[in-house]
Amino acid sequence: MAGLLQLHLIKKITDFWKESYTTNPLAFWIEMFSAICVMTGSAILTYTVLAPRPDIFVPFYFLGSVTSLVAAVMRKAAWIVVLTGWFSAMNIIALYQLFVL
After folding, report:
1. Is the pLDDT of residue 4 over 90?
2. Whole-number percent of the chain with pLDDT over 70
3. Domain that holds residue 45
4. Does 63 reside within a domain?
5. pLDDT-derived band of residue 2, with 50, 70 and 90 as boundaries?
6. How many domains in the chain?
7. Per-residue confidence band for 51, with pLDDT thresholds at 50, 70 and 90
8. What's the CA gap between 88 and 96, in Å, rounded?
9. CA-to-CA distance for 96 and 62, rounded, in angstroms?
10. How does DSSP assign 31-98, residue by residue?
């Protein structure tokens, strides 16, 4: 019984990823790039937490949030647009404070 449940769960997860790709392949790849950027920025922040390097991790967060915003618009995901739009705006402010002021 447990084996059948595991197979069913694996199939549902696989179908989820396949549907994400087939509904909009370009958005799928943009989202992958976005995820890689945000995970890279997060890893940098995690490993430098005692002496943070925003000059390194904020640009990764910015790239990730802007590309995620583009993909959310492509998918017409309204609340994801709001969330990633907010993150993008906050990262623009952070970049301005880091590199312009």
Report:
1. no
2. 100
3. 25-99
4. yes
5. confident
6. 1
7. very high
8. 12
9. 11
10. HHHHHHHHHHHHHHHHHTTTS--HHHHHHHHHHHHHHHHHHHHHHT-HHHHHHHHHHHHHHHHHHHHH
| Element containing residue 10 per DSSP (H, E) | helix 2-23
Residues 21, 31 contacting (CB under 8 angstroms): no
Q: Is there a domain that residue 36 lies in? A: yes
> 36-45: per-residue pLDDT in tens?
999 999 999 9
Residue pointed to by tokens 């990823």: 17
Tell me if 10 is assigned to some domain.
no
16 class by beta-carbon count within 10 Å (0-12 exposed, 13-18 middle, 19+ buried): exposed
Residue showing tokens 């790039």: 33
The residue behind tokens 């002021």 is: 101
| This prediction's pTM | 0.89
Q: Is 13 contained in some domain?
A: no
